Amino acid sequence: MLRPADSAPAPRLPVALGIVGLACLAFVTLAYPASTRVFAWPWSLAYGGVLLAPTLVLLARAFDSRRPLALPHPLWTGSALAFAATVLASAFLSPWSGPSLLWSAPLLAAVPCFFALHDALRSRTLSLSKLNTIVGLGFAAVILTSLGSWLPTLPGRSFAAIVEARNPFPLGHSNYTAGVALLALPWFAYLAWQTHARVRLAWLVAFVAALVVLLSSGSRAAIPALGALGFAALLVAPLPRRRKLTLLLALPVAALAVAFAHPRTRAMLSPADPSAAPNVSNVQRAAMLTAAVRMGADRPLFGYGPGTTPLAYPRYRAGLDGGAENVLQLHSTPAQLWAELGTAGLLSSLALASLAFIAFLRSATPHPAGLALVGYAVFALADWQLDLPLFAFAVALSLASLAPAAPASAPRLTLALGLATLGGLASVTLLGRPDPTPPLNLRALALASTGTPSANAEAVTLLRTSLAQNPDQEIAHFNLGWLLLVSDPAAAERHFIEAIHLVPDKGGVLFGLGLARLNQNRSTEAARAFALECLNDPAFLFSPWWREPSLAAHLADTRVAFAQLTTLTQKKLPPTSWAAAQLPAVTALAPRLGDIPAGPAHTYRRERRGYPVLIRDLNYAPPFDLYDVRELPLSLFLTLTPTPLPP
User: Fold this and answer.
1) 600 preceded by cis ω (within 30°)?
2) Phi, psi of 631 (to 5 degrees)
3) What is the DSSP secondary structure assignment for residue 168, as one 8-state letter?
4) Helix or strand or coil: residue 446?
5) Pick the residue with more confidence: 265 or 17?
6) By the 8 A CB rule, do 463 and 480 touch?
7) How does pLDDT run across 584-595, given as a tens digit for each residue?
8) 588 exposed, middle or buried (CB, 10 Å; 0-12, 13-18, 19+)?
9) Which residues pair with 405 in a beta bridge?
10) Cβ distance 43 to 37 under 8 Å?
11) Most-buried pick from 21, 220, 525, 629 (CB within 10 A)?
12) Could you give the angle at which helices 222-236 and 368-380 cross, rounded to 10 degrees?
């Protein structure tokens, strides 16, 4: 029997807002590279529409007295509200509160999405079968777009190149491709099971296409996630016990076959060779996890604030063993939650995950939402994707499908939920603001590139203003050091040292440090810095910079310092490591350091292509550093280094 409210006509405004939100979601999901394109106009407008739509839908429903909002069970409601409160508290308490409030929007928007979808299902505005079909069609659009964009890139490649190619479409990274495929597979299988004839065939084709897309991603984390998904599906499948056992025994064989089908996943099963070059991805991920542990340990309750990893990570970069200069995310959902939301974020997330798992186990029939969450939870251990609306809303949708309804309506709680939603919306829109330092840095680099004294003076002022607001900016310290190299070498030295603390292996920073010390008549320390630059970047051994008479005068001291450093480094390295195997080839070049034949040189400035992504604003062009890199033509360089130098 329907409740009296159920007989009322479905409200038109929430439905219209939902349709607009879906259209915006499609716009910012299907245009490659979707994960970063949302930071540029006009996609940022649609991105705002995606995040705002579920909030407006929930507000329209919360204050609709004709048709009471259908709330989830109190445990679910409390856990969802606790997560939202944690996100807001973490943003307010962040050292970068304004930017963090803006960057909290995807996580916050997932909460009203959860409540709005649960209400639509329980108040019968939207049937579960219709929702499943809409979800299936949405995922099918992404999968078809992925295949349609990836397949045309394959003709003309060798078979080995095709096998090793990783599919980044349409979101911009192959890990996102794997995440979408994992979420889509349970819905395609469920819809094929529930339908008949040609419709079933269409969903089966979509299922196979999703498997192809998953394999094309080359994601190593996708294989165990797919195994967990298959295991969970067999456990709840309405099949005879004997057949289940047979399929369960066959599951590991199928998982190994999928793993061996791609070189990247096949490498996981091979024993590691200590003399082989380190896997860059593994090094970076290990560094990110170490940074995440330390970030959360320093702010254990609420973390650094949602979205602030690019601002906090440089503080920990010097203490990491390798890794990227800076990162947008930490490639692990638990690590990201710990670093940015602290213990409160982990506990509130764990509460929702536990409720979903219990609901899945209690489900009488296989549920695509529960299966999707099982597979995606395993995958999320090795990646963080909830800052993208597609993934945040997919998780919210799955939770809404699993959450049981509250035993009775609660008008006061509904009103409180509406007011809390208004408060969250006001906090983000009124108090959220972009990071003020990137415009200062970009303006300074643009001015300094002109080379005029007045422009350089203004650039120095801008960079100092930027560092006063956030001292953990390698880009500002590095370029300020080059600006002050002649006028104030002591200050330049301090900024180069700060840049080294933030990014120890930055190319050119040790060279700049040596020049700053040379300009202070500290030639011995300068020679050691030049030698460190050669050890950090062996290509600098034959840089045309050594043709400068002021540098050539210190070649002998630099060669001695370089030989001493390589000897000390050799003693510290494990004898069977790849680095130890490569170092003798570098050490042998010490007597030839700076011995460069006459010929043309290639001079350029390095472009920071990832900076607009890190600051989440692609309306800015990538900036160029003020350091003039000087290199030999590749053909001449190869004649000087018969043994390839390590990267």
Assistant:
1) no
2) -135, 155
3) -
4) helix
5) 17
6) yes
7) 877 888 888 888
8) exposed
9) 72
10) yes
11) 21
12) 150
Residue 165 CA to residue 157 CA, distance in Å, equals 10
- The sign of the dihedral angle between the CA atoms of 518, 523, 527, 529 is negative
CA pair distance 433, 429, nearest whole angstrom: 8
Contact, 620 vs 568, CB < 8 A? no
Please tell me the predicted confidence (pLDDT) of residue 7. Answer: 46
Q: Measured between alpha carbons, how far is 456 from 544 in angstroms, rounded to an integer?
A: 26
User: Contact 35/174 with Cβ under 8 angstroms?
Assistant: no
* Tally of CA atoms within 13 A in the half-sphere of 360 that contains its CB: 23
Return the pLDDT at 113. 97
11 prior amide bond cis, ω within 30? no
Q: What is the C-alpha separation between 533 and 561, in angstroms, rounded?
A: 11
Residue 358 is which amino acid? Answer: I
Closest CA to 288 of 240, 324, 237: 324
Distance CA 491, CA 483 (A): 10
Per-residue pLDDT at 5 exceeds 60: no
Give 474-509 pLDDT, tens digit per residue: 999 999 999 999 999 999 999 999 999 999 889 999
Residue 317, both tokens: 């970069």
What is the 3 state secondary structure string of 384-429?
CCCCCHHHHHHHHHHHHHHCCECCCCCHHHHHHHHHHHHHHHHHHH
| Rounded Cα distance, 459 and 480, in Å | 8
Question: CA 266 from chain center: how many Å?
Answer: 24
Alpha helices in 599-642 (DSSP H): 611-614, 634-640
Report pTM.
0.92
Radius of gyration of the chain (CA): 28
Provide DSSP, 43-63: HHHHHHHHHHHHHHHHHHHHT
Coil, helix or strand at residue 75: helix
Rounded Cα distance between 608 and 442, Å, is 11
- Are the beta carbons of 363 and 370 closer than 8 angstroms? yes
Read off the pLDDT of residues 197-239 as tens digits, 9 standing for 90 and up: 899 999 999 999 999 999 899 898 998 999 899 888 888 877 7
Euclidean distance between CA atoms 504 and 489, whole angstroms:
20
Name the phi and psi angles at 277, rounded to 5: -60, 140
Tokens coding 79: 């856990």
Comparison of pLDDT for 279 and 125, the residue scoring more: 125
State the pLDDT at residue 2: 39
